[in-house]
Amino acid sequence: MRAILLGGGFALLISLLGTRVAIRALTTLGYGQEVRDDGPTTHHVKRGTPTMGGVVIVAATALGYGLAKLITLEAPSASALLVLFLLVGCGMVGFLDDYIKVAKRRSLGLRSKAKMIGLTLVAVVFGVLSLLPALEDDAGLTPASTAISFIRDIEWLTLPAVLAVVLFWLVITGTSNAVNITDGLDGLAAGASVMVFGAYMLVGIWQNNQSCDITGGSTCYDVRDPLDLAVVAAALTGACFGFLWWNASPASIIMGDTGSLALGGALAGFAILTRTELLLLVLGGLFVVITMSVVIQVVVFKASRGSALFRQVFRVDPGYRVFRIAPLHHHFEQLGWAEVTVAIRFWIITGLCVATGLGVFYAEWVVGY
Fold first, then answer.
1. Which pLDDT score, from 0 to 100, does residue 190 have?
2. C-alpha–C-alpha distance, residues 219 and 207, integer Å
3. Which of 91, 264, 288, 308 has its C-alpha lying 20 to 30 A from 124's C-alpha?
4. 212-255: pLDDT as tens digits
């Protein structure tokens, strides 16, 4: 438990102070944000705001965790190192994307195919390592499981190892892109991430206290290294908190794809390693809704242009748009909501999703598995 407090505290302090240093350095280098011309016009004032701030979040998390382990004289666990691998790996893909944007002074960085190739490489390496028999603990548990999970492994939904890696790829690429899409308003992604990572910290603590190695019984949890996963989650919570001080509206720095892809990858890692893959859809409900708004917008727009039957059935014109603009948070901006209002209300939605997810998680244990 001491490591959790130390990891979160160190990461918060490093992020809070380090972000200020990063703002000065990035401003000096001229690494400013490029803004899409087809986005809300109110965002044009953000052009030139220092970007790639996600580097600070990643560094603060790794340093906070490392210092906590050093002070408590505890060895890092395989599960924690795998989450950090996802954090750094997905962050590096985002860093390349951000660097191309600032170097070439354009709003588009890596091509979508190149970005997906990078995320796929990170996800596959993670998937293979997390299922390696060499990483089994004394109880015979590997960091990840081949079974699809909700609050724990669903034994009758066990997959072959190859398909399990495919599932991990889907969760990692989907979640990283979902957080990336959400990162469109000052403080929105950072604030939402604080709550979801905080939830996974509590999940890890509870799974450790009710571990099958300690309590036994039908409601215990077969999860490798839950307490060390809680330390990483605490470090991420602290790092996002510290960054949010500078990222809140009006933002002095933007996390960029470096931060959003890294945070999304880490969230996916927690879901996979704590055996709560489907629960992530509830805890990260805001990310799901915002991503689905983009999917709906694209599907309806293309269908209305290409299918006369679709237009006739739904009585829409060619090129019909469900939302004024996607993602969803920009739609509300176009309706006249202030940016800070959208961010705060979406934080509230995230809080409700997290409360619901933790409630379901605890209720399943109370009722009995």
1. 95
2. 10
3. 288
4. 877 777 788 889 999 999 999 999 999 999 999 999 888 899 99
Answer yes or no: are the C-beta atoms of 221 and 211 closer than 8 Å: yes
Distances (CA, A) of 95 to 84, 241, 280: 16, 21, 25
Tokens 């006369």 map to which residue?
308
Distance between CA atoms of 225 and 211, rounded to whole angstroms? 10
Residue 69 CB neighbours (<10 A): 19
CB 5 within 8 A of CB 22: no
Alpha-carbon distance 335 to 92, whole Å? 36
Check residue 44 and give its pLDDT. Answer: 47
Task: Say how far apart CA 66 and CA 52 lie, in whole Å.
Answer: 22
Q: First and final CA of the chain: distance in angstroms?
A: 27
CA dist 23 and 103 (Å) reads: 17
Q: At a CB cut-off of 8 Å and minimum separation 6, what does 12 contact?
A: 60, 64, 238, 239, 241, 242
- Give phi and psi for 257, each to the nearest 5: -65, -25
Query: C-alpha angle 273/244/259, rounded to 5°?
Result: 50
CB 83 within 8 A of CB 229: yes
- Please tell me the pTM assigned to this model: 0.92
Confirm if 152 and 273 have CB atoms less than 8 A apart: no
SS3 assignment for the chain: CHHHHHHHHHHHHHHHHHHHHHHHHHHHHCCECCCCCCCCHHHHHHCCCECCCHHHHHHHHHHHHHHHHHHHCCCCCHHHHHHHHHHHHHHHHHHHHHHHHHHHCCCCCCCHHHHHHHHHHHHHHHHHHHCCHHHCCCCCCCCCCCEEECCCEEEEEECCHHHHHHHHHHHHHHHHHHHHHHCCCCCHHHHHHHHHHHHHHHHHHHHHHCECCCCCCCCCECCCCHHHHHHHHHHHHHHHHHHHHHHCCCCCCCCHHHHHHHHHHHHHHHHHHCCCCCCHHHHCHHHHHHHHHHHHHHHHHHHHHHCHHHHHHHCCCCCCCCCCCCCHHHHHHHCCCCHHHHHHHHHHHHHHHHHHHHHHHHHHHHHCC
Length of the chain: 369
